[in-house]
């Protein structure tokens, strides 16, 4: 049987459109032919090092062509790619390496201070591959380019089925140790199918990837769908609003995925309007609720804006909201994708009536097969064929889903349930507020009080009285924050998610 894994995509693309540009990274451009042959060389070189089906290959790399080459090389071998967040502290990187037990670890030379102490430890890593080493610079580790050059261009002979795991993506771990979500070739393929059913990714697509590729959103929302379609991926190694605008103009970028914080920073560029962004056909946001002001900015300029909801465990896409629906469906994450089933249930896993809040369950071919070496957590998450997300949601009469909050973040004040996301959406409408988060804090009278933690725009100040007056009439009185803390910036983990446990402690 011919291989059905995602590594086959490049093989077919070389046959169908070999001279078309696949990846642009800095001054380098790789056609589908040159990319597939580099990937084959890397795959065969890894095979020569002893990498076998099911082995883990960890990468600690910034955005660049290398992480995508490892993605497809591992896929062709039947090995499992383990992207590691380079923003993690050394001890956190050590934890993932010890948990995943990779046979190879590829790292960029800029992360040598994190990797060097690991090399003398008993963590299962047999081969250390160093990326970015200039010619002539001595290193005890394998040089990446030399490794690639030493491999054969022949297609690896493997029959890879869709149910084989190809990537282990670690969750961000806001409440505990991160877990490795096991994603199969089929998960990623069906995620592409779901995406193409709702977002107009074309064969002539030129998408720009600047969100970090160690996250499932950056990897699978537009990057892999664009490569599947035979389009071009422009890879930026770091987020800088001015560089991003210049790249869109220079490369005639047609689509762009960013997280909300990036969209906000982009729109705050002083001379934003002077850049020629007419090539943009659509934009996508994900990772957190996107302020309506951002969505409306692009919609008013004729650029369709899609907001996605998903998670690592679902590869990631679950729902997509069309920007045209955003004003009348404020706060919605849209409707489920074609091959995604959802339920909203109570604590006994019984479906709740339309409009009522319950836990969101997800089912479909893009849902992970489990967590690496976590049988108990896997059983808890995957019950009766459904992924229990831990998110609280409701559905309206038109089928639009609204994420209310994480179950653990819900505030109970005076016997009333308050969902922080609902309050945060109102706070983001305040003209002085740049960032906002809402948590519950202990209250002798009410059980919990609603606390707002905000970062204000430059040169602004904000009092609790001002905030409460702004919320009056927009929120029920018990939902209006009783406590306000103004900070320089919200605390976030290495994945960029707000650390509400820190905010609760004050």
Automatic annotation (TrEMBL):
Is the Ligase keyword given for this protein? yes
Name the keywords, alphabetized.
ATP-binding, Ligase, Menaquinone biosynthesis, Nucleotide-binding
List, alphabetically, the Pfam families matched: AMP-binding, AMP-binding_C
Note the PROSITE patterns from the entry: AMP_BINDING (PS00455)
Specify the AMP-dependent synthetase/ligase domain's residue ranges: 16-372
Q: Which PANTHER family match?
A: LONG-CHAIN-FATTY-ACID--COA LIGASE (PTHR43767), NONRIBOSOMAL PEPTIDE SYNTHASE PES1 (EUROFUNG)-RELATED (PTHR43767:SF1)
Q: What molecular functions are annotated in GO for this chain?
A: ATP binding; o-succinylbenzoate-CoA ligase activity
The beginning of the lineage is:
Bacteria, Bacillati, Bacillota, Bacilli, Bacillales
Please list the residue ranges annotated as the AMP-binding enzyme C-terminal domain.
422-497
Record family assignment? Belongs to the ATP-dependent AMP-binding enzyme family.
InterPro entries attached to this UniProt entry: AMP-bd_C, AMP-bd_C_sf, AMP-binding_CS, AMP-dep_synth/lig_dom, ANL_N_sf, ATP-dep_AMP-bd_enzyme, MenE
Protein name as it appears in the record: O-succinylbenzoate--CoA ligase
Q: What GO terms in the biological process aspect are recorded for it?
A: menaquinone biosynthetic process
